Amino acid sequence: MVFNVMEEIAKHSLQDIFESGYSGCQCEICQNDILAIALNRLPPQYSSRQAGEAYIKARLFADQWKVDIIRELTKAAEIVSASKRHG
Description:
This protein is mainly alpha-helical. It has 4 helices and 2 strands, in the order βααβαα.
């Protein structure tokens, strides 16, 4: 199985944003929209094994990667808040 480790890290980071007092909509539709927009702007980091996943996660937790991920999630959240796809 091949998976994008960036997606997993972005999901966890989005939850951290929500828990830190994010005031926008947190429904499943908005969460998925935020993730899709952010992940399209972040480079994918694929792995097919747990050893590779651990290596990638270690790299992604470096300070600059954390900043990049949070920045893209924040931008995406602003876009979604401005034009929600639900009532």
